[in-house]
Design brief:
- There is one protein chain.
- The chain is of the alpha/beta class and 367 residues long.
- The protein has one domain: TIM Barrel (Alpha-Beta Barrel).
- The protein is built from 13 helices and twelve strands.
- The strands form three sheets. It has an eight-stranded parallel beta barrel with strand order 3-4-5-8-9-10-11-12, surrounded by five helices. A two-stranded antiparallel ribbon has the order 1-2.
- A hairpin with a 2-residue loop joins strand 1 (12-14) and strand 2 (17-19).
- Helix 4 (152-173) packs parallel to helix 7 (212-225) and helix 8 crosses helix 9.
- The radius of gyration is 19 Å and the shape is globular.
């Protein structure tokens, strides 16, 4: 390997919590919980491999936050009660045993839910059918249903669900930090997205209004977990049902969105693009990670998007990123940091890992 990876092994501090290196496992939905949303022994083994393999940080898959409309997938884990929270204890203990920072990602699926045991219908900012089709490898089929527009009471409940789940995640399960999922087309991103959010109240219209739900959720989580727990937000332009979406006002939107989170006291921002190093909007323009650092300079910036290319990962640290988060490369190489330290070759990702259903396979756990 010709790339100097030294910078990837420097520690990084997020609100007083130290990640031992700049390499993180990205959140990846693996639908391997029990039907009632409890983390399993298989999930513990799955996550521990990454910690044993040297990753400084592990971010969980999206964990649903309430017993109403939040759940997105069959066999998705939750954090809605003490039973679910307690089920995460072995996972967190396994991560911490290797000195790995454990971050719980909390998510509400909103209008693109395709498997919710609590409700038959879906909700979103507006009654607009989502683009695209449900994902077959998460047990989906056909088009997404038509959601109901959320009431003020339902919005308040959704915010409360994030906050209370964050409390359980840190106080019961023992997670070090919280990531609020505001990306990839899920509920908070639906409110941010112009074509999905046609509301005329203070939750819709301008970018400042459309980012309000993310900001209010951040504030509620912060109030619940306190000032010492790192709280971050994941953001993207593209979505699981609309890969090529771009923010309409381009860099001006980036300034408003990242600046609003900075003003609200966010500890880290996790940006994800298909290829993180690409210009976010126009040729030769800045990447999304650079814009995040520019408009939220006090926040740690986590960057995701095809950074299993180690030369790209190293270069990202000079383009606004403090930590790089790796998905496909981590599935193929759960010991990726150790391999880099030993100058060993990396394996190529095999998409068969995620088929026909994207649950955790026993063959992975033998890697």
């Amino acid at each position: 390997m010709d790339t100097d990876t030294t910078a990837l092994f420097a520690p990084s501090i997020i609100n007083g919590h130290t990640a031992k290196n700049r390499l993180s496992v990205a959140p990846m939905t693996r639908i391997s919980a029990t039907e009632d949303g409890r983390a399993t022994e298989r999930m513990t083994r799955y996550y521990e491999r990454f910690a044993r393999g040297g990753f400084g940080t592990v971010i969980t898959e999206g964990i649903y936050t309430d017993q109403a409309f939040a759940q997105g997938y069959v066999h998705q884990p939750g954090m809605t009660d003490e039973v679910q929270a307690n089920s995460w204890k072995p996972v967190v203990s396994a991560l911490k045993a290797h000195g790995t920072l454990a971050i719980a990602q909390l998510m509400h699926a909103g209008a693109i839910s395709q498997g919710n045991r609590f409700r038959d219908g879906t909700v979103g900012p507006s009654s607009i059918q989502p683009k695209g089709e449900q994902m077959a490898f998460y047990h989906g089929k056909d088009r997404y249903g038509l959601p109901s527009a959320m009431t003020e009471a339902q919005i308040a409940d959704a915010i409360s669900g994030f906050a209370e789940s964050a409390g359980r995640a840190t106080e019961i399960a023992g997670f070090d930090a919280i990531e609020i999922h505001g990306a990839n087309g899920y509920l908070l991103d639906q409110f941010l997205t112009d074509y999905a959010n046609t509301r005329t109240d203070h939750w819709g219209g301008t970018t400042e209004n459309r980012v309000r739900l993310i900001v209010e959720t951040l504030k509620a989580v912060r109030a619940r977990v306190g000032a010492r727990v790192p709280v971050g937000v994941r953001l993207s332009q593209g979505k699981v049902n609309d890969y090529h979406h771009k923010w309409a006002a381009a860099e001006r939107d980036a300034e408003i969105i990242f600046g609003s989170l900075a003003d609200a006291g966010v500890d880290f921002i996790h940006v994800t693009e298909f290829e993180a190093w690409r210009p976010a909007f126009v040729a030769d323009g800045p990447s999304l990670m650079r814009l995040a650092k520019q408009h939220a300079p006090r926040a740690a910036i986590l960057a995701n998007g095809s950074l299993h290319d180690i030369a790209r990962a190293t270069a990202a640290l000079n383009d606004g990123a403090d930590i790089v988060t790796i998905g496909r490369g981590a599935l193929a190489n759960p010991d990726l940091p150790r391999r880099l330290a030993d100058c060993a070759a990396l394996d190529t990702f095999d998409p068969a890992i995620l088929g026909p259903i994207a649950d955790v396979k026993e063959t992975e756990l033998a890697m």
